[in-house]
């Protein structure tokens, strides 16, 4: 996955460590964005996270990216990580997918694949056994 660290685009490994600066995202890599998770009690202002917290969030985003099948990955614009339990996907068509944590990513991807047959604004696969759609 890749991540914007200020004004630098960094390639990150599955543990959330940035290991290379690039001018543009290499083909096949999804952008991870550290966002906010409302109501989780965390201060999400820039600089409010420790480096360790930031790496944990990046690692969660990288795990989700790695778990996406190629066909689905191509439809994902970015992965927004508010906390390790609050990950969402921004799809290229403008829809949002509530993903939850990286756990069960394979199952979530299969459920999402079926749900995407319906054109909706929000898909929730955070509990893959009980998915929902809105809009």
């Amino acid at each position: 996955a890749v991540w914007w660290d200020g004004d630098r685009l960094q390639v990150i490994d599955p543990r959330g460590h940035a290991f290379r600066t690039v001018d543009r995202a290499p083909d096949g890599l999804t952008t991870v964005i550290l966002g906010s998770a409302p109501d989780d009690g965390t201060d999400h202002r820039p600089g409010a996270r420790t480096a360790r917290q930031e790496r944990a969030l990046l690692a969660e985003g990288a795990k989700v990216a790695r778990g996406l099948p190629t066909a689905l990955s191509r439809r994902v614009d970015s992965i927004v990580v508010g906390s390790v339990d609050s990950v969402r996907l921004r799809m290229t068509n403008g829809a949002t997918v509530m993903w939850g944590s990286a756990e069960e990513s394979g199952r979530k991807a299969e459920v999402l694949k079926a749900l995407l047959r319906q054109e909706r604004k929000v898909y929730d696969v955070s509990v893959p056994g009980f998915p929902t759609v809105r809009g």
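Confidence is low (pLDDT under 50) at residues 39-46. The radius of gyration is 14 Å.
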